[in-house]
Design goal:
alpha+beta, single chain, 11 helices, five-stranded mixed sheet, Heat Shock Protein 90, 5 strands, about 70% helix
Length: about 375
């Protein structure tokens, strides 16, 4: 764009010096070309520095009545100068047009007729100084209005986001409070009753089952507190989260319920990000929970396969006798688990097998 403006000023300056759009000059053509080129170059740099353009425009007009550089300079003055500098520019340009009229009057001939009379000086001053200046002031005012509207819009957007975050935080706090009042209280009662049953159990098997319920209930309370911490603070959990290092403890708890669980690790084990390991852990946890609820005490295989670019977790159980195909696969737990896996870019497949068993397969990318 600046180069296009420079070319336009050069061509208009040549047209003015040749007489087609101004007063014909008797100077040699190379001199006129040099003056027009200086005017065009000043117009190019006028976006960064205004005063060279004003100086070239003043000299060209006073000497040869070449007006394009002066017009562009007045426009730029309207768009950029402060009030004080703007008045200085207006005063300087009035002096330039008055001096140009005096020089043209002394020159005589056609130049004196065009730019040397008082009426023509006023007309040309208004056309070449006033109109471009007003246009520049209008452009600057429009820009300021648009900038103010844009800033106001951005401020409103920031306020809207802040209000939404505040509302979200209040809702999270409310949900956490309700969960604590309802769920945590009842789980605490369950743990207390299990502890009482453990100490007053009539036989060792009942005491062992009560102890398992008590320990599991305490872990459930710990997990619930972590969830409540997440709800209260959007920064994330504050306590340690389970990873694949805790998988054996999860399998031991499942075995204590009477389920035969076999773990198989394949590939070269390597450290993964905590988020990926937590996701893999929850895949196994939810799958084993579904086995216990829907299939009973059936033998279950857990596979942890370290692939080059992904971690593959499989939980596969055999069909239970007398369940008539009552296998997991339609509960909310698997729906939430699929969303959890997809959040890390993975894919979850869950469904019955050919031998009437059930399989949960998660592929979690690691690269």
């Amino acid at each position: 764009m600046p180069w296009a403006l420079g070319v336009a000023v050069f061509l208009l300056s040549m047209a003015s010096a040749s007489g087609s759009m101004g007063v014909e000059s008797t100077l040699p053509v190379p001199v006129l070309v040099a003056i027009a080129a200086a005017s065009g170059a000043a117009a190019v740099v006028g976006r960064r520095s205004l005063w060279p353009l004003v100086a070239v425009g003043a000299v060209a007009y006073v000497w040869l009545v070449i007006w394009p550089a002066a017009v562009v300079g007045s426009y730029y003055a309207g768009t950029r100068l402060s009030r004080r500098d703007l008045w200085l520019h207006v005063g300087g340009m009035i002096v330039v047009f008055a001096l140009g009229g005096f020089v043209s009057h002394l020159h005589g001939g056609y130049q004196a007729l065009v730019a040397g009379t008082l009426a023509n000086v006023l007309v040309m001053g208004g056309a070449m100084l006033g109109l471009p200046l007003v246009a520049g002031l209008w452009v600057r005012a429009r820009r300021q209005v648009l900038d103010a509207a844009r800033e106001r819009s951005e401020q409103l957007l920031r306020e809207q986001i802040l209000r939404a975050n505040q509302a979200r935080g209040q809702e999270r706090t409310r949900i956490a409070r309700e969960m604590h009042d309802v769920v945590a209280h009842r789980v605490s009662l369950m743990v207390l009753h299990a502890g009482a049953l453990e100490f007053g159990a009539p036989d060792a098997r009942t005491a062992e089952a009560a102890a398992l319920i008590r320990v599991t209930g305490r872990e459930a309370l710990t997990n619930l507190r972590e969830v409540l911490g997440v709800l209260r603070s959007p920064d994330g959990p504050r306590g340690p989260q389970p990873t694949l290092a805790d998988l054996d403890r999860l399998l031991d708890q499942t075995r204590a319920l009477g389920i035969v669980v076999n773990r198989h690790d394949e590939g070269d084990a390597r450290p993964l990000s905590p988020t990926l390991e937590r996701t893999a852990y929850h895949v196994v946890q939810e799958a084993l929970t579904n086995v216990h609820k829907h299939a009973g005490n059936v033998e279950t295989e857990v596979f942890v396969r370290y692939r080059p670019v992904e971690l593959e977790v499989i939980v596969r159980n055999r069909a239970s006798a007398g369940t008539d195909g009552d296998l997991p696969g339609s509960g909310w737990g698997l729906i939430g688990l699929r969303e959890r896996v997809e959040l890390v870019g993975g894919r979850l497949e869950a469904g019955p097998r050919d031998d009437d068993g059930f399989q949960v397969l998660a592929r979690i990318p690691t690269a």
